[in-house]
Amino acid sequence: MWKKGKHTWKPNPQHMGGCRWFTKDSLVSFSKAFSSKPSVLEKSLKRAERMKEACGAKCVLFLLFVQTWLVENTGHTSPGKPVLLRCRSPEKETFACWWQPGSDGGLSTNYSLYYTMEGSREDAVHECPDYKTAGLNSCYFNKTYTSLWITYTISVVAQNALGSKSSDPMFVDVAYIVQPHKPENISAELRTQDQKPYLMVKWDPPHKADTKSGWITLQYEIRLKPEKGAEWESHYAGQQKQFNVFSLHPGEVYLVQVRCKPDHGFWSEWSSTTYTEIPDYFRPRDTSVWILIAVLSVCIFLILAWTVAIKCNSIKSYLLPPVPGPKIIGFDTQLLKSGKSEDLLNALGCQGFPPTSDCEDLLVEFLEVDDSDEQKLVMNEGEDDLEGRVKSSGNKVDNDSGRGSCDSHTLLLEVSNSSRKTYAQVGGNSNNKGSVKLSRKSSTNGKLLSFEATGEKTNTWPTANSSFLLARQSSCDNISKIHREASSLGNKADMHGNTSSAQSKSKECRELHSTVSGDQKTWFADEKHAPLLPFKSVEYVEVEKLNQQSMLILKPKTEGHKSVPPEFIGQEYTKVSGVVSDRVLLLLRDTGAQGSSDTQEGKNQAVPPSLQCQVGKMVGTFPASPALDGMQLAASGYVDTAALLQSF
Amino acid sequence: MRQVSVLFLVLVCLDLEYRITSAPICAHGDAGCHLLSVSDLFDRVIQHSNRMHSLSSDLHSEFEKYFLPVRNQIGRATHKCHTSRILTPNGKENAQRTDREELTQVILRLLVSWMDPLLQFHQSVAHNEELSNFSSNKALELSDMVHELKSGVEKMAEKMQLLGIISNSLNGLFPAEASLSSSASNEARHMRDYELLRCFRRDSDKVQNYLKILKCRIVPEHGC
After folding, report:
1. Phi, psi of A99, deg, nearest 5
2. Quick one: closest CA in A to B204, which residue?
3. Which terminus of chain A is more exposed, N or C, with fewer CB under 10 A?
4. Do A149 and B80 touch (CB under 8 A)?
5. Confidence of residue B35 (pLDDT cuts 50, 70, 90)
6. What is the secondary structure of A562-622 as a DSSP string?
7. Taking every annotated instance into account, which residue ranges of this chain make up the domain Fibronectin type-III (chain A) (predicted)?
8. Contact A423, A370 (CB under 8 A)
């Protein structure tokens, strides 16, 4: 019935049977009706229904067809059904609802929210008081419009030109839709307890939630994780506003978040993240390791100390080797202590004592007496020159070390090559220091023998009354030589005034022994006093006497005395036969030499060529007879001062 | 050994003493001590009401599952709660404007009005074979709790009246409450179970909230 005309449908007049003819005008008005409001559309539909009643089914189809065509060409429809999403109250005093709009049908659509309250009348429908505060597609109910413990029936109606759509209603009791805001002011503080760190997290409730009046009661939950960790570690904190977290890894940065929930309601969102760094700390486990190390070191130290204590001596000897004392090769200190001088000297290799023939290279040929500065016999100490060279051994302890067998602390043998000046000074002890200094100069090998005897009291020698001149050398040969020299001197200076010393000037060694006692007069001289004349050449002196000041008075020997019996050329020894009254040494004359002046008649004993140079031994060689009337000594006797030792 | 045994006996006796006399140490007449005990009472009562409310919520959700009414029908309360007659403050400001005595009175009214209906509810649940034992046990527990809470609140009110915290105007209300509750309970029989639970859940929430408000108003030191 419609003829397709030029963009219009024209009813075919031929097929129009029983239907009203629609004029073009009516069609235009009909199409206009579609674009108008739905009410208009409804009216048109009603009209179409009426027409349908009038026209029948075909007319209905026609109308539907028209409608569809119109929709396709314009794209407008009634709005879709909106959906209420949720309603939430942050503090149980206000609430808001949000919805999701449906399709708008291409037309501007209005959304309106309507609600009814329980207990009020059914038709008391209210509309949303505030569409804007809560954002788009929302409705906000402030305090005035909020009532608790009342069920709200809320629905949203979407409406556009073509229709409206209402959402499904939502039943809301504000007391049960509480979802608070996030907790605020979250602070995480690192503290230590028993050297273990823990994190104390504190927060405040959301400022809108009124917990102080008891209107809302909130429960809290915190969660934390290391910055690089994957999972959160949650802790329920109850209603308190702080929480201590103990399971921490040092040296990491932790993220902390808190959320809250009312008694019956919804959890809030997680708060903003708080970052806390846990510093590295010394774990208690490490402390126990250190304790273990300390205990082990103490044990090791104790073991070492015990080992050292046991091996003390060997360690000492290893670390600090003892300084060896000077030892004479072949010298046996035990022999010395045992008192066997023969064995000792044998051990030392002393073959003959006094030595007889092998002393050519020895020291002193003669004794030079230099009297250039003195007019008479100088009985002074002569301390100036010699003492610098001669050591005073008065304070030394007499022991064997460093000395020869004939030890003597009183006599030092000094050998020097330098000076040829010799002088003899026989000095008494004006100050209790009887010293006789004799310097011998050896022309052969330039040795100077100087002697100094100090008559001080010494430890070993009971020299209270005498002083001894003894050569102290390291070898026995020298000692024997000195003895020879001493004997020669003694020969020359003995009481006999023998001046055969000029002839006895030989290259052989002579011992020099002189015993001068401080207040004893072992030297006996003739009664004539003769000063000691200065000698320019080698001359011999003889001791005349010993004056009161314990001075030896020497006098030179004259030529007349040159007729030294040949016996004086050789080396002669005399034994000391005895000591008389502790002051006089009695010398034994040689058997073959002179027998006249021998007052010890029964004592003609050959002087044993090897005289033991030992004190103790000398005693043994002493003849037992002490009695002596005279004070004459053998001409060729020598005094071994060592023998005097025993008498004291 | 003897000394150890004597010491042990002494300790046990002390412990027993401690258990027996679990009340605060302070004697009567001490104002500070009384206030402390009021705070303790409040705490106990609030705990009790919390428990009661959580129980009622569980039961309510369980009943919803079982009966599965259409969602639209849930909201439509065919019957009002029998306690709707009791004027209760429905907002924070309203509640804070209400004075202590009235608030306490409201609480007591609510509790009293629920004692019988819950008993009936328990009986109906027990006979209902569709419901699990868990539900019937909870229903029984719920009715017991209401009784306990009501007595607790009464004691607390007496204490407060003794201390002068609230006036003595409460006593005259109780007989009136009884009449109210009886009429209300008649209405409650007609309610369906889940509606009853819904009403009770709401009222227990009210009670809890009012108690908390009271506590923070009277003894605000702890946890407010």
Report:
1. -135, 165
2. A149
3. C
4. no
5. low
6. G---GGGTS----EEEEEETTTEEEEEPPSSS--SS-S-GGG--PPPSS---SHHHHHHHS
7. 81-180, 182-281
8. yes
Cβ(A503)–Cβ(A565) below 8 Å: no
Distance from CA of A192 to the nearest CA of B (A): 27
Calpha distance A214→A211 (Å, rounded):
5
**Residue A561 and residue A499 in contact, taking contact as beta carbons nearer than 8 Å:** yes
pLDDT digits (tens, 9 = 90+) for A119-171: 777 778 999 999 989 898 999 999 999 999 989 999 999 888 888 888 888 88
Q: How far is A199 from chain B (nearest CA, A)?
A: 23
CB contact under 8 Å between B202 and A173, yes or no, is yes
Q: What is the pLDDT of residue A391?
A: 43
Q: What is the pLDDT of residues A277-323, one digit of tens each?
A: 777 765 556 678 889 999 999 999 999 999 989 888 887 888 887 78
Is the CB of A264 less than 8 angstroms away from the CB of B84?
Answer: no
The owner of tokens 């003889």 is: A542
pLDDT given for residue A340 in this prediction: 59
pTM: 0.50
Distance CA B8, CA B92 (A): 55
Count CB pairs under 8 A between chains A and B: 66
Tell me which residue in A118, A146, A263 faces B77 most closely, judged by beta carbons. Answer: A118
Q: Which of A554, A540, A530 shows the shortest CA–CA distance to A428?
A: A554
Suggest the residue from A120, A149, A167, A264 to mutate for an interface test with chain B (most B CBs closer than 10 A). A149
Residue of higher predicted confidence among A230 and A609: A230
Please tell me which residue of chain A has the smallest CA distance to B222.
Answer: A212
Cis preceding linkage at A354, omega within 30:
yes
Burial track A330-349 (b if 16+ CB lie within 10 A, e otherwise): ebeeebbeeebbeebbebbe
Q: Is the pLDDT of residue B1 over 90?
A: no
* CA A147 to chain CA mean position, Å: 81
Q: Please state the ipTM of this predicted complex.
A: 0.79
pLDDT reported for residue A476:
46
| B18 to chain A, closest Cα gap in Å | 29
3-state class of A339 per DSSP?
coil
Instruction: Suggest the residue from A217, A218, A219, A220 to mutate for an interface test with chain B (most B CBs closer than 10 A).
Output: A217
Closest Cα in chain B, distance from residue A248 (Å): 29
* CB contacts, 8 Å: A215 with chain B: 92, 95, 209, 212-213
Q: Name the residue among A147, A169, A215 with its Cβ closest to that of B213.
A: A215
Nearest CA distance, A88 vs chain B (angstrom):
16
CA–CA separation, A201 and A199 (whole Å) = 6
How high does pLDDT run on average in chain B? Answer: 77
